[in-house]
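tool=predict chain=A
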Amino acid sequence: MSFRIAPSILSANFAKLGEEVANVIASGADWVHFDVMDNHYVPNLTIGPLVCEAVRPCTTAPIDVHLMVKPVDRIVPDFAKAGANIITFHPDASDHVDRTLGLIRDCGCQAGLVFNPATPLNWMDYVMDKLDVVLIMSVNPGFGGQSFIPSALDKLREARAKIDAYTARTGRQILLEIDGGVKVDNIAEIARAGADTFVAGSAVFGAGKDSDPQRYNSVLADLRTALAGV
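tool=predict ok
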């Protein structure tokens, strides 16, 4: 299994965002994760398509947009136009999950569903043919720096079983992403539960001194070392 690390810019220095993105990718990250919050679906307000458009020239790495907004469909084309590569959303934030997944793919992006700690996985059973990514939240969404919720490991195992059964039938791969409280000391256990893509915010962007462009090398190397032992 190949692994991807996707630092969340929610924990980055927004005064130097382009620099932060370039540095973290140069240090070995695979994706750039955007946490988009609207102060309606979740109790926080973060960033929109203009930030995605501004960051796009700073890297060729995939931009992974996690929409914590309601409604969803209105904003999808804007993020696709701004340079997003992957767009995920919460099924309970969409009036029609199948159509929203189709809209994301029609806009040229990979599409995925996001499951909060208390959201059941059965939503995915009916739209597997339109899923490229399944994202499991291991914290309640809204704020960075929260602690990992251990029950997310059971949810990962359940999602992995569904994905593996689907892949065995169809040959099509679906990525399994985790977001929330991912750190060097738990990433291996999370990977063993089935995750192949890891969002890490404060664990990465909180490393080292802000004046050091190499400050992310060590933490990303430590995350890779932990994953190599899985």
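Residues 4-228 form a domain with the TIM Barrel fold (CATH 3.20.20.70). Residues 166 and 172 are 8 Å apart (CA to CA).
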